[in-house]
Amino acid sequence: MSDHTDITWTEDIRPTRSRPGRTADNGDSDSPADSTPGTPGTSRTPSTSRTPGTASTPTTLTHTTPWHSESGLPAPRRVIVADDRMKADAAYRLVCEGTALLWRGDYQGARQLLRALGRRLDRLTPKPGATPAETFHRHRQARGHRARVLGMLLVVLEDDHGLALRRAPDVRAACTEAYGPPRHRTVVSLRELLGVIGAHEWRRKGVPIPALDARIHPHYGVFSPVRGEYVDLVGDAPLPAATRSAPAVAFDLGTGTGVLAAVLAHRGLDRIVATDSSPRALACARDNVERLGIGDRVDVTDSGDLYPAGRAALVVCNPPWLPARPTSSVEQGVYDPGGAMLRAFLDGLAEHLEPGGEGWLILSDLAEHLGLRTRDELVGAFDTAGLRVVDRLDAKPRHPRASDTTDPLHAARAAEVTSLWRLAPAT
């Protein structure tokens, strides 16, 4: 997350012709009389003045406002003001050259421009690599370039998180959920703001979970359980013998939204300890536990490590599936650098299981189809950790990308299988 750099830009404020008995109003909330030099989000140094009742030249204002990026994108070095007169081709040339566009026009016009920029970027499909892994890395580079370029269309959030653009929706609640209480004006990319708005709608409506006969409400920055196959696997797998002894304790490692902890509670386990290292995930899981009325059986905690203290009859872990570096908070639910979380789960499992207990590893084999990890490496990690495979349950993905033939990674996604590995100590 990046929010320690200021964005500076200048813009001309054309005065309106005032009528006798009225004070001229330039329509800008940062009028020179109200601004304080050095205060975040204020304007400075008007270059001209105007006389009431007469036409005058525009007033040039210099704005300095803090930059915020949840994905850690650096603040653009050059910013110019743009509005509905900006043509898509001109905008595309500017953003590709590294010039950010601070939008002052119609909100719907900004969304249309963003879509037009996206269409131009989509024409730059990277060539397939010599190997699936090379194709994957080229695809990620292209997606990263796309995100950086589209992130150059900027908007200003006012000191109440409001968006002062024509036809703009009320984004204050969505921004407060994602960014926290407002403190001052902030510049963000429109692309990120649209993600914040979308996350707010997911949080408000929730995601239906058939295994719970209820909804889970994901928060911004927490991986949403929209891929139901892994949830169904946890809902259907036979419980280990150790769970028949009361009180049956389970650990849910890297709980995220808390969906798997909730499924385990729904299946009758007496106590579930759900851990995560992300403050957003912890808040989200606690919210869902409270909504579902299972707070007396599910304890959501930041243990300071992957495992909480003690032993459990069942340990469930759904680590990020791809051993690569995440570039944003949301990607942390998909990418596990070097497979660190996967190995930490396997290496600590035997010492945290009750006699007769099991560890359930929920893992897609997409990394294998992309050439990022082999099946032999995975099984070898089981052996190294002193574990044996009791059983494996498989499920094919149901998400739309599995059948999207335009996706450069289509072959790997079409062959993907998500598995629940039932693991136990080898001896």
Notes on the structure:
There is one protein chain. The chain is α/β, with parallel strands linked by helices. The protein has helices spanning 88-96, 107-122, 132-150, 172-179, 190-205, 228-236, 259-266, 279-292, 340-349, 366-369, 375-384, 410-415; strands at 2-13, 42-44, 59-69, 78-82, 99-103, 153-157, 186-189, 207-209, 214-216, 249-253, 271-275, 298-301, 312-317, 353-364, 387-395, 418-425. The strands form 4 sheets. Strands 12-11-10-13-14-16-15 form a 7-stranded mixed sheet, sandwiched between helices. It has a 4-stranded mixed sheet with strand order 4-5-6-7. α1 crosses α2 (107-122) and α4 crosses α5 (190-205). It is globular. It starts with a strand and ends with a strand. 37% of the residues are buried.
What's this model, at a glance?
Helices cover 30% and strands 23% of the residues.
N/C terminus separation: 45 Å
The count of DSSP E runs of length 2 or more, i.e. the number of strands, is: 16
Order of helices and strands: EEEEHEHHEHEHEEHEHEHEEHEHHEHE
The rounded Rg comes to 26 Å
Largest sheet: 7 strands, mixed
Content-based structural category: alpha/beta
Overall mean pLDDT stands at: 86
Helicity level: 25-40%
Strand order of the largest sheet: 12-11-10-13-14-16-15
* Global outline: globular
Fraction of residues in β-strands: 15-25%
Helical stretch tally: 12
Low-confidence spans: 18-40, 43-54
